[in-house]
Amino acid sequence: MPAKRREPTSPLNRYRVPILDRTLDLLERLSQHPEGLTLTAMTEGLAMPKNSVFRILTTLTLRGYAERDESTKVYRLSRKLLSVSHGAIGGQRLLQAASAVLTALRDATGETALLGTLSGSQGVVLDQVASSHPVKVVVEVGHAFPLHTAAPAKAMLAFLSEDMRKALIQGIHFTKHTKTTLTSAKAFAAELAEVRDKGYALDRCEESETYACAAAPVFDARDEVIAAIWISGPSDRLPLSKLPAAAKVVADHAAKLSASMGRPATHRK
């Protein structure tokens, strides 16, 4: 049986709403399992009455925040939650500020330039400006990407608080996709330390041998990481020998976007 959650000691605890607590527990649980969970799996994992879990899931599904696969009986979070998290990080303001930066980054590198953020235990693409090359990397807005292989995920995780970073790393399944994929929490943590030192992150064909990426974090007025921008292109145009130089270009553009989002000048490199 899962351990009972220990409530923090606070005089405000008497104002807690139990059903809202349970709903948030359920949302957090689903966010850790992008592949989805069955009603039984969630009931067991949350140690909640099955009827309560079913009612919450039904409400979330009716409101569009969750989806149910009728064939597998699996529930997943929907992209509607993206609009909520999007608002928390500056939402439309971020998209507007990023538009010109992404275009400039695409022009400077010739590769597809993208903007994304973290969403639960994965990353999600918010916007992109496609490369003008006939052969290019293009992804759908809303596409989810894994944390251990994607350059933008590394760029964001590296600058989270230590507690948040450790919690996310503990939830990663280090699936091996290519010969360069990082397959352990120790190796991944070491790479994130290097990202913090350099200010940019790389995907050295870690998810697919056909493309590579270079990313840098975007910060807000509180100097908190809220997003990442990156370039993605075929591995023959972005070989490992050229990735660091390309990443520095990305970092320069990320700094401009951070300034637009109000990051204090004292924190800019």
TrEMBL record:
Q: Which organism is it from?
A: Prosthecobacter algae
InterPro entries in the cross-refs: GAF-like_dom_sf, HTH_MetabolicPath_Reg, Tscrpt_reg_IclR_C, Tscrpt_reg_IclR_N, WH-like_DNA-bd_sf, WH_DNA-bd_sf
Q: Which PANTHER family match?
A: HELIX-TURN-HELIX TRANSCRIPTIONAL REGULATOR, ICLR FAMILY, HTH-TYPE TRANSCRIPTIONAL REPRESSOR ALLR
What keywords were assigned to this record?
A: DNA-binding, Transcription, Transcription regulation
The record, for Gene3D superfamilies, names: 3.30.450.40, Winged helix-like DNA-binding domain superfamily/Winged helix DNA-binding domain (1.10.10.10)
Acetylation as a keyword of this entry, yes or no, is no
Q: Which domain of life is it from?
A: Bacteria
Which residue ranges does the record assign to the HTH iclR-type domain?
A: 17-79
Q: What is this protein called?
A: IclR family transcriptional regulator
Domain IclR-ED, first and last residues per copy: 80-263
